[in-house]
Write a structure and sequence with these properties.
The chain is of the alpha+beta class. It has helices spanning about 1-10, 15-20, 30-35, 50-60, 80-85, 85-105, 130-140, 175-190, and strands at about 65-75, 110-115, 120-125, 160-170, 195, 205. Helix 2 runs antiparallel to helix 3 and helix 5 (about 80-85) crosses helix 6.
Length: about 210
């Protein structure tokens, strides 16, 4: 049935799925819709993958890797920056952060914007020293971005918080992995700007 076909979409190659659908009696309009879903869609503001495309790409990668890390990140104090300097400056903070994500990728990594100030990076590295070094480099570069109002923040510059979900041989779906990373991100944000959380109940600095 149609619902079953849509669920199968998450785990099968799009071309193969469409081939099977065309040989069935499924409505041609649904086939067109599925074909559109199979294409990568970019967030219009940042140019990164949007949430749907990020999830599809991650779901496709999961059966091919036995270990990976998912890093959820959020720009600190963005709401305050919007109120202080206007949404245009807030958008500049978002696009600046997205640009840094594109210039600092590790091999095989890809990133996306989930919503608002929240971003996600998928990497096959689970070495925490490598991940913390990457995050520290990202934080250092973000601190050099000069925007009106950021000098009034507690740190005097833009910062971000991060939650890292590492796993080996996970059988979780892409959505479940995203939820785990977001739990760690929320823990980090609850403890102030510029924090990283590896566990759902702890947070440390980005040193």
């Amino acid at each position: 049935d149609r619902s079953g076909a849509i669920i199968t979409l998450m785990s099968q190659d799009y071309a193969e799925l469409l081939k099977k659908l065309r040989s069935s009696e499924i409505d041609e309009n649904l086939i067109t819709l599925l074909n559109q879903l199979g294409k990568e869609h970019k967030d219009p503001l940042t140019g990164l993958l949007d949430y749907r495309s990020f999830s599809f790409k991650m779901q496709d990668r999961l059966p091919k890797t036995t270990r990976f890390s998912l890093i959820a990140m959020s720009i600190d104090h963005l709401q305050e920056l919007n109120l202080l300097s206007g949404w245009v400056v807030g958008d500049l903070a978002i696009t600046s952060f997205a640009g840094l994500l594109e210039t600092l990728p590790a091999a095989g990594d890809f990133s996306g914007r989930l919503s608002g100030s929240t971003f996600m990076v998928f990497t096959e590295s689970i070495d925490i020293r490598t991940i913390k070094s990457w995050l520290a480099d990202l934080a250092e570069r973000l601190a050099t971005v000069k925007l009106p109002g950021v000098d009034l923040f507690p740190e005097g510059h833009l910062t971000f918080s991060a939650g890292v979900f590492r796993t080996m041989g996970s059988k979780d779906s892409s959505e479940e992995c995203v939820i785990e990373a977001q739990k760690r991100l929320q823990c980090a944000k609850a403890q102030g700007g510029g924090r990283i959380s590896l566990l759902a109940g702890s947070g440390t600095g980005l040193e």
